[in-house]
Amino acid sequence: MSSRKETVDPRHGDPSIRLHSNLRSEFVDPSYPRSDYTDSLGSTPASSVTDFHAHRLSLQPGVYVPTVVFFEKETEDLDLKTIASHAVRLAKAGVAGITTQGSNGEAVHLTHEERKTVTGCTRRALNEAGFHSLPVIVGCGAQSTRETIELCNDAADSGGDYALVLPPSYYRPMYHPDSLVDFFQDVADASHIPVLIYNYPAAVSGIDMDSDTIIKLAKHPNIVGCKLTCGNTGKLNRIAAATQATTLSAPGSGFMCMGGSADFTLQMLVGGGSGVICGLGNVVPKACVEIFKLYATGEMKKAKELQAVVARGDWAAISGGIVGTKSALQSYFDYGGLARKPLSPPSKGEVEKWKDMFREVVALEGKI
Questions:
Q1: To the nearest 5 percent, what fractions of the chain are helix, strand and coil?
Q2: Catalytic residue among 73, 219, 227, 353
């Protein structure tokens, strides 16, 4: 769980850095049927872009942070300086990767051009700070298959290494049983970067993908992981076992089975998971990483004690959402600012409430 700082860009051939490879060959189905959807788009199917994939950075077990996006106070324009410095702060804390365009990144408040700008800014900042080997995952969910594919390929062009994709939900009552399977297959076929399935029922009208569906989709050669913000550890256990997911102790198939919040990091590790993509990491990345370190060295008692503090801190992040997270950053680290309208600025009472709720875990962060 080091800072992973490198002096050579791995995309230029540094053999010491493990890149995206064929580790999953024993699990994926080589005859997985490709849809005809890519033909109608005139898009290059994923199966024919293996050279492109070979130059993508691999995902390693650990903490991934869905980064906050920052805006100028008066204009709500992107604050690129703070976006860049925040990404570097997280990298220095030892996270395994960065995620842009998530819920914390206010993707729904950004234009397509702004999304590309944020991802490109993040990648450049990491490279300039020497963190060439740190992968960038990009949220690419949209309501149509076509737009989702466009976002995936925009992400690739902007320096993203992987696409994190929510299922569409607006027309949920009209979906047939295989609609979501078809959706993810079509996206994976056409995306120029590997895809991770994002299961977050609260964000998609209650759609909660079951383990059987995710395991089936995991056989697609361009679907390489999942994020389970449903918090269902049983589902995580089933998927991790069926896919032979990567863990701290074994590379497995290369499939990344990840939790979606910091409050069950230790449970995820015990259950055979690969990592977490957690919003709390924006505020206390070192505390989140420390759980992995303690688990890796067998210090379970300390890991359980730390997990309890992190879980309490994560409740602050969950209950306050992006407004509370930005407020905590502003209170404790003197940057953060406000979310874009129509989200309202926090009241003075809310600022104090969230400052108090984050106090314990921020104090712990300062001791690590």
A1: 50, 10, 40
A2: 227
* Model pLDDT, residue 346: 97
Question: What would the pLDDT profile of 279-332 be if each residue is shown by its tens digit?
Answer: 999 999 999 999 999 999 999 999 999 999 999 999 999 999 999 999 999 999
pLDDT of residue 171: 87
Cα–Cα distance, 53 to 19 (Å, whole number): 9
Cα gap 178→181, rounded to integer Å: 5
DSSP letters spanning 3-67: ----SS-GGG--TTS-BS-SGGGGTS-TTPPPPSHHHHHTPPPGGG-HHHHHTSBPP-SEEEEEP
Q: Is 83 helix (H, G, I), strand (E, B) or coil?
A: helix
pTM: 0.88
pLDDT confidence band for 32 (50 / 70 / 90): low
Give the mean pLDDT of 205-229. 95
What pLDDT does 17 receive? 30
Greatest alpha-carbon span in the chain: 59
For the segment 48-59, the average pLDDT, to the nearest whole number, is 57
Confidence check: pLDDT of 44 > 80: no
Between the two ends of the chain, the Cα-to-Cα distance in Å is 13
- Write out the two tokens for 196: 């991770």
Q: What's the rounded Cα separation, in Å, for the pair 111 and 146? A: 16
CB neighbourhood size of 2 (10 A) = 6
Q: Which residue has the higher pLDDT, 15 or 63?
A: 63
What span, in angstroms and rounded, lies between the C-alpha atoms of 366 and 35? 51
pLDDT of residue 37: 57
Rounded-to-integer distance, Cα 328 and Cα 365, Å: 13
Distance CA 148, CA 190 (A): 10
Is 227 an active-site residue?
yes
Q: Classify 69 as helix, strand or coil.
A: coil
How far apart (Å, rounded) are the C-alpha atoms in residues 43 and 189? 9
Taking the C-alpha atoms of residue 291 and residue 302, their distance in angstroms, rounded to an integer, is 8
| Residue appearing with tokens 């050279």 | 51
**Measured distance CA(171)–CA(205) in Å, rounded:** 10
Residue 114 has φ and ψ, to the nearest 5°, of -65, -40
